[in-house]
Amino acid sequence: MRQGSLRDTAKAVIKKYGTVIGGLAIFAAFAISTPYFFTTRNVLLILRQMSMLTIVSLGFTFVMAAGGFDMSIGYAMGLMNVFLATVLAATGSLPLAILVALGTGLAVGTLNGTLVAYLRLPDFIATYAVGSVTYGAKMLFSGGHPVFIRGAPESFRTIGQGFVGAIPVPVIIMVGVFLVTLLVLKRTRLGHHIYAIGGNPMAALYAGINVRRKRFITFLLSGLGVAITSIVLTSRMGSGQPQAGEAYLLDAISVCFLSTTMFGEGEPTAPGVFVGAFIITMLNNGLTMLGIPYHVQFITKGVVVILAVMLSVMLGRQVRVRLL
């Protein structure tokens, strides 16, 4: 009886913290393999590198928590990147450029939300189509060429390249977005409704929740997350790059799926996203230090996500996401 109780306890711990334990094991392996990995400088570098992935993934979390999907985030980020750089280069006004980026993010979120929540198109197809539209728009607007920002104010460079003491500014922004996301999802009626919709949309509807409106809001929040990420990314690069942000789609999907294997019952959570983004970024960082070819990093990340989802399924946890 006691043995069975210990087995059940071990299973419960693995079910809730297995991915975290795996991440710690990977961290320890890198720390042993190279003396430059587990240093204050490199840990801060990892946090800085993961900041943008975390922010865009936190926005994606709202959509995924409601059982949805957003395939437009990579291409949309490039559009906002180009718009922000163009406005800043033309006017020199950072507030105006930021408003344009945020407005573009909300516009993309509005289009996604309208198609999915009100016109009832499948999430995957509708958001993929919106992504295609934003890709064409940014290439048409920029001609496929980068937009260089000359004479940008120092406050703009601080967003993506500055420090407060030893802490990078992007890390501070990431922590702020993380805390807001955590508060909204766990402590507000909107967050509770989002999770209820993701668990069972029909039951949520019968409970009096305005499912369409709440799903629409999740896409607005996802677009806002993409916009904030694009602002940090543009500042870090110092220019508008039409193809900037495209790689974030697959990484954000990986992070959000990893988050469903931690801390909850198949639900994407803000703490899970933070840990998932750290694992993905840590893998890139550690493998680079070990001299592993870049393409192998993609294989490794894919294997990690597969193993995480397999663990979730083996432990009987249902991942709540509706692809079609």
Structure commentary:
This protein has helices at 2-33, 40-65, 73-91, 94-118, 123-142, 154-161, 169-187, 189-199, 201-206, 211-237, 248-259, 270-289, 294-314; strands at 147-148, 163-164, 167-168, 239-240. The protein is mainly α. The chain has a single domain (21-314), classed as ABC transporter involved in vitamin B12 uptake, BtuC (Orthogonal Bundle), CATH 1.10.3470. A two-stranded antiparallel sheet has the order 1-4. The chain has a two-stranded antiparallel sheet with strand order 2-3. The chain is globular, with a radius of gyration of 20 Å. The termini are far apart. The mean pLDDT is 90.
CATH-defined topology:
ABC transporter involved in vitamin B12 uptake, BtuC
Terminus-to-terminus distance: 45 Å
The parts where pLDDT drops under 50 for at least 5 residues are none
Specify Rg, calculated over alpha carbons: 20 Å
Q: What's the architecture, going by CATH?
A: Orthogonal Bundle
The total of helices stands at 13
CATH class group: Mainly Alpha
What topology does this entry show?
Layout lengths: L1 H32 L6 H26 L7 H19 L2 H25 L4 H20 L4 E2 L5 H8 L1 E2 L2 E2 H19 L1 H11 L1 H6 L4 H27 L1 E2 L7 H12 L10 H20 L4 H21 L10
Antiparallel strand pairs: 1-4, 2-3
Helix pairs in contact: 1-12, 2-7, 2-8, 2-10, 2-11, 2-12, 3-4, 3-5, 3-10, 4-5, 4-10, 6-10, 7-8, 8-10, 11-12, 11-13, 12-13
Key features of this structure:
13 helices, 324 residues, mainly alpha, single chain, ABC transporter involved in vitamin B12 uptake, BtuC, 4 strands, two-stranded antiparallel sheet
